[in-house]
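Troubleshooting log. The previous structure file for this entry was overwritten by mistake, so regenerating from the original sequence record. Sequence copied from the archived sheet and checked twice against the printout by T.R.
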Amino acid sequence: MGLVFADAEAVLKPRATLVTAKPMPSVNININNFQLEVQESPIPVILQLWAEGCGSCDTIAQILEEIAVEMKGRIKVAKLDLGKNRELAAQFGVQFVPILAFFKGGIVNDFFVDAPQKSAIVKWVHKTLLTSS
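Regenerated output below.
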């Protein structure tokens, strides 16, 4: 026996908008996509080198998501989990996190190691964009 509705139109009418998760504007990097997403990117890339359990890394990740949206098309934000990508991480010689690396034309132009404050990161991005031209 099928279901019977007294008022099919009322049942079919959406009552609330379904909330779906927004896609993250950043790209997760690993050994398989590093060359394509970072080294061959047509736009500059900010690569966040981070590790699980790093509170400052989490704060910076949130800031970078905002920057990725604000500067969409002018800069790409990418993230490299050092714990899951040890071989690739070793190429950077990273001793501590968080660190941001600025890539342009496939090479590192600058590193950022500082307090996780949006104003400081935005200032560094703009300065690096201007000086790496």
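Confidence is low (pLDDT under 50) at residues 1-21. Archived copy saved in two places this time.
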